[in-house]
Amino acid sequence: MYQQAQVRIVDSQLCFTVADTDEARRTPPMLTAISVNRFTGADWEYVWRWITPLEPAVTLTADECIPFGTALVAGGSNELVATLQPGERYGVSINSQIVNPVSGGDPTVGRIYSRHFCLQSSAGAGLTVIEVPRVRGELQWEVCGPQVMGDSGAANEA
Q: Which of 9, 16, 50, 53 is nearest to 33 (CA)?
C-alpha cells in the first residue's frame, strides 16, 4: 500500500520520514530500504539508497527522520552517488513492513511511503523543500520553477 512520505529539513540537514497517520502511530513501520532518485526529464537515476540490515529491525516513527545519505544503523548497503541540488527534481521511496492488522494472513504487509520534491535555496534561509503535488495522476513539477542543468544532463525547461 502506498502512503505519503515527509521530507523535512532538520538542523540544516535534509531528512525523510513517514506521514503521521493513525496506522504509523499504532504500528511503526519496519524499514527495509530507502532510496532517493533524481528525475532527468526522461528517466529516474538514483542518488542514494540504503538497504537496511535484517537485524536489528529498524523502525521509523513520524517524529524520527532519516538524514539524507546516512544509514541509521550499521550494516546493510548504503550507496551515496550524488548530492542533492536546488532546482533538481527528486523522489523518495521508503520501503517498509508493518505487522499485518488482519489475522490469519501473512505476519507482515508491505508499506511504501513516497514523495516527490525539489529544493530551492534562498539567501540567508538555506534550503527549502517544495513538495510536488499530483493532480489527476500528473506530477506538477512547475511548482519547482524551471529545471536547472545539473550533472544529470537534463535540459532546462522554459
A: 50
Beta pairing partners, 45: 38
Pairing of strands 44-51, 108-122: unpaired
Count H helices and E strands in the chain, helices first: 1, 11
The residue type found at 137 is G
Per-residue model confidence as pLDDT tens for the chain (158 residues): 578 999 999 888 899 999 998 988 888 999 999 999 999 888 999 999 988 877 788 889 889 999 999 877 777 788 888 889 998 999 999 999 998 888 888 888 899 999 999 999 877 778 899 999 999 989 999 999 876 544 433 333 32
This prediction's pTM: 0.84
CB 114 within 8 A of CB 2: yes
The residues, ordered by sequence, that sit 6+ positions from 53 with a Cβ below 8 Å of its Cβ are 73, 74, 75, 76
What DSSP element (H or E) covers 22?
helix 22-26
Answer yes or no: are the C-beta atoms of 129 and 14 closer than 8 Å: yes
Contact criterion met (CB below 8 Å) for 115 and 127: no
